[in-house]
Fold this protein.
Amino acid sequence: MEQAEAFLNECRALNALLAPLDDADFERVTAFKNWTLNDILRHLHVWNRAADLSLQDGDAFKRWATTLVEPFQKNALRAFERDSVNGVAGRALLNTWSEFYPEMAAHFAKADPSQRLEWVGPTMSARSSITARLMETWAHGQAIYDELGVMRENTDHIKNIVVLGLNTYGWTFINRGETPPEPRPQLVLTAPSGEIWKYGEDACDEKIEGPAEEFCQVVTQTRNIADTTLKLTGQNATRWMANAQCFAGPPNDPPVPGVRRIKQR
């Protein structure tokens, strides 16, 4: 699956960013809910392991998922993730994460894309599972790039996140108890390579135009729409980008304008 290669490349880019850091740097606090770099890496690694387990052994995954009930009820997921890696932090945590993601990518690269996998909600295809891991790595990684004051260099593999964002148009509204409005806006986005990606029928009244990277930032809630150069045409486009959410879970509000940004060195 191309998505497995995209996931691997995104992990490699993040790994290269983190490689020069010392142990103390991993306690730096990001603009994402005051999570530290350690919190983010633990989160990525624990859920990478969970996705791989769901691919390798669905019954074992379901048993593991029962251990999540109490942490979710007590809003103690970060503590659960810390305990899941035995409190490993800093460069040791970086090594733990970086030693596993290539193995996981290799497993998904050989998988049947349509294979149904268990998850903490409805089952999903293997392709959707690895795409979700790509999206999570890219989205949580943005907080690290921002904290370190580094402008991210994206590649066209973010097309997978664009498609995920488009496919969750309806979810954004349904998750908030609203009926998805029609027509769905057309996307006319400029890829990192300069290629134009167009999705949907030509619709002058409902359209989103601009950099694909910024569309990805909005649907993953790493930027407020006000902090982008995206051009919105139409009420449906405006409503969508105000609350876009391409990930599962209860409704999350986007960051307020100006909070999620590249930190000045």
Notes: The first helix runs from residue 2 to 18. The domain at 2-153 is CATH 1.20.120.450 (Four Helix Bundle (Hemerythrin (Met), subunit A)).
